[in-house]
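call fold target=SDR family oxidoreductase
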Amino acid sequence: MSTETLAKPLTGRVAVVTGASSGIGEASAEHLARLGARVAVLARRADRLRELVARIEEHGGTALPIAVDVTDAAAVRSAADRVAAELGDADLLFNNAGVMLPAPIEELAADQWQRQIDLNITGLMNVIGAFTPQLVKAAGERGVADLINTSSIAAQNIFPTFAVYSGTKAYVSHLSRHLRAELGAKNVRVSALEPGIVGTELQSHVTDDGALQWLEGSKETMDWLTPQDVAETVGFIATLPPRANLQQVTIMPTGQPS
Ligand code: NDP
C-alpha cells in the first residue's frame, strides 16, 4: 500500500456534507478533505462555506461550496447536478443538517415542530432523493459508497420536552436500517450516527428555559463531545473495508449516562 493511500485513504472519493457551515458538518468536511476526499459543502450560509473552503484549500484539499436550503427539493436536485458536473458522482453522503428545538408539548409550539420536521425529516429525504442515484452508480463503478445519516441518542432514549426532535431522529435511525436492506446489496453502506451531547451551534437555537438549564447543568457532570470527535468517527466509518458497515454508531461523552 502506498504512503498516499495510507495517509489519505479517501483519495478519489467524492463526499457531500450537509450542515457544513458549523458544528459537526463543518468539522467533518474538513476531516474528510484531510483524508483525501473532494468535498461538496452544503448549507444556507454562503459566507461560512467560503471560509471553510478556503481552509480546506489552504491544506491542499478540494472543496465546492453550494449555498442551499435542503428543505427546497428542487434546489437540492440542482446542487446534486452541480456536484456530479464539477466533482464527479458522490460516493459519500454525510446527511447531517438538523435543528433541535425542545419545548413542553402543551406549549403547542407548532412552528417549532414544523421547523424540525421540515429539516430533520423532509430535508434529509430531499438530500437522499437527490443523491441516491449517484451513490448507487458510484458504488457500482468503485465498489463502495457511504450514506451516513446524522441521528441522535434522542432516537433511542427518553428526554422530556424533546419529544418532537426525538421523533424526527427515531425516523432517521429507523429509515437508515431499512435503507441498508435495499442499498447494501448495491454496495452502498448505510449508517445511522447517534451522538450524545456535542458542543455546537445546535444549543444556541434552543429557547426553552428548562432545556437550557438542563443543558447548562450537564456541563458540570461531563465534558461535552467536540465536533472533531464526531468528525473522526465519520472518517472511521468511511474508511472501513468495503465489506464492513457500521449500521449504527453511538458516540457519547464519557460522563453522559444516557
Ligand atoms: P449546528 O447548528 O452547528 O449545525 C447545523 C447545520 O445545519 C448548520 O450548518 C446549518 O447551516 C445547517 N442547516 C440548518 N438549516 C438548514 C437548511 N434549511 N438547509 C441547509 N442547511 C441547514 O449543529 P450540529 O453540528 O450539532 O448538528 C448537526 C447534526 O447533528 C444535526 O442533525 C443534529 O440534530 C445532530 N446532533 C447534534 C447533537 C449535538 O449535541 N450537537 C447531538 C446529536 C445529534 P445554515 O444555518 O448555514 O444553513
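return ok
Residues 18-25, 43-45, 48, 69-71, 96-100, 119, 123, 150, 152, 195, 197-198, 200-202 surround NDP (CB under 6 Å). The chain has a mean pLDDT of 97.
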